[in-house]
Amino acid sequence: MSDTRHTKVLIIGSGxxxxxxxxxxxxxxxxxxxxxxxxxxxxxxxxTEVENWPGDTEVQGPDLMVRMEAxxxxxxxxxxNDLVTSLDLSxxxxxxxxxxxxxxxxxAVILCTGARAKWLGLDTEEKFKGFGVSACATxxxxxxxxxxxxxxxxGNTAVEEALFLTNFASKVTLVHxxxxxxxxxxxxxxLEKNPKIETLWFNEVQEVYGTDSPLGVEGVKVxxxxxxxxxxxxxxxxxxxxGHAPASELVKDQLELHSGGxxxxxxxxxxxxxxxxxxxxxxxxxxxxxxxxxxxxxxxxALDAEKFIAEQE
Length: 313
Fold this sequence. Notes:
By secondary structure, the chain is α/β, with parallel strands linked by helices.
């Protein structure tokens, strides 16, 4: 028989938005329960140096998330290592089923499920995932010491990954389908000064190839977007860094979404179309997508939830 628990505020997700919501909801004496999800700490746990978190000139992403979790716990937030598998927002109290079998009912829900890495969608990419194809340089870069690597993308993530991978690789080829990067200027400057990085403009990956026994990447074939010319790039590792997609599967049929899956909220708030349901962080923010803005929205969501519950009482 499944265990059922009730809480005033259920927080789903554990990145900067979730943990900050946990801090504020705890301070408001709402005794929140936070369910961490598949990746406790979120995207920052797969990042190395974070240089834009106020108060820290430089901090390791995983360390920052450990501190945030400890802070939320110290305030009284009940943090549960579990995964919400389904969520019913059709009536209050809202109901969440979890992977462990525990059922949570809640007067208010704060959604902080964040975003996940996008993939190219190639069959050969899928074939070599975990065997030379990765979306996390900090997780897997160490395995490619002295080897040649390809990074795919043109934004902050791609440039950060390429720069980080030069700590291990003999050469990093950055493949981008346009002729200019969307990354911050400071990152582009570092990229241009790094002798280990070569940028291949106007190219898209067509195929990842390698060996079957043992399974391993040997290189990629890229196609020039203007001439159609195919180029072969030898590489032992391929890192996909083309952005992230919001993790809105739990609510895709229950809440209004926009811009490819982001949860819609009222302007200037975290309120969704369903009273008592709030969304914060990368799940709803397709513009800024920063740790500091996610944390700010987590604060807003907890305060919005506090006000909602007070009005119900």
